[in-house]
Amino acid sequence: MSPPDEQEFRRTVGLMPSGVTVVAAFGPEGPAGATASAVCSLSLRPMMMLVCLDRDSRTLGAVQQAERFSINVLCEDQRREAELFASKVGQEEKWGAVTWHGEPEVPLIEGCPATVVCERVDMIPAGDHVIVTGEVLEVDYDSGGAEPLVYHGGLFRTLDPAPGDG
Ligand SMILES: Cc1cc2nc3c(=O)[nH]c(=O)nc-3n(C[C@H](O)[C@H](O)[C@H](O)COP(=O)(O)O)c2cc1C
Q1: Nearest Cα residue to atom 12 of ligand 1
Q2: Of 44, 75, 77, 87, which has the fewest beta carbons less than 10 angstroms from its beta carbon?
């Protein structure tokens, strides 16, 4: 069996559709955040979440320093935010372009269909990423029906109803 090259690996895992979030924490210079899709729920008792952050992510540094981090789930109207937080512009520019609150504990982006606040538990090195686990302190959600933003095949997408679903 020959291992895939990086492009094949990227293409393959890119076919797994994922939700899109912004993971955020307060660093020494203020809020820091990165678009992240490697995010999932981990445990119910206790309630825990898991986030994977690139070693080069500036947000990882903030998550390392802060006790708390937030997971801000993006909806289809927040594609601009997804692109902005995936970029390497300064954190001031990122946070200046969105409405947020939560000072001094944890930055939370307004208008998200769901947010989760976690207390950091473990940071586990894994390849070129770090697996961050956190115990859930608080959740907030709006069941008002905002459609999620989805990432698939290297593109941001929205969900279409399945054929026959109204
Ligand atoms: C759809 C999408 C999903 C991403 N998921 C992750 C992820 O799960 N973990 C990660 O570290 N970077 C992820 N990235 C890349 C980061 O958003 C990107 O490296 C960003 O510039 C990091 O910002 P920072 O250096 O300010 O933390 C993703 C990018 C996109 C477009």
Answers
A1: 36
A2: 44
Nearest to 31 by CA among 1, 72, 2, 3: 72
Rounded percentage of the chain residues whose pLDDT exceeds 90? 92
Query: CA 122: distance to chain centroid?
Result: 17
Distance 164 CA to ligand 1 centre (A): 35
For ligand 1, whether the C-beta of 67 sits within 6 Å is no
Q: Does ligand 1 have an atom closer than 6 angstroms to the CB of 65?
A: no
The CB of 157 under 6 Å from ligand 1? The reply is no
From CA 132, how far away is CA 124, in angstroms rounded?
6
Vertex 73: Cα angle to 72 and 77 (nearest 5): 115
By the 10 Å C-beta count (0-12 exposed, 13-18 middle, 19+ buried), 138 is classed as: middle
Contact 77, 159 (CB under 8 A): no
166 pLDDT more than 70:
no
pTM for the structure as a whole: 0.97
> Does residue 131's CB lie within 6 angstroms of at least one atom of ligand 1?
no
Strand segments, DSSP code E, in 28-81 are 30-36, 39-43, 48-54, 68-73
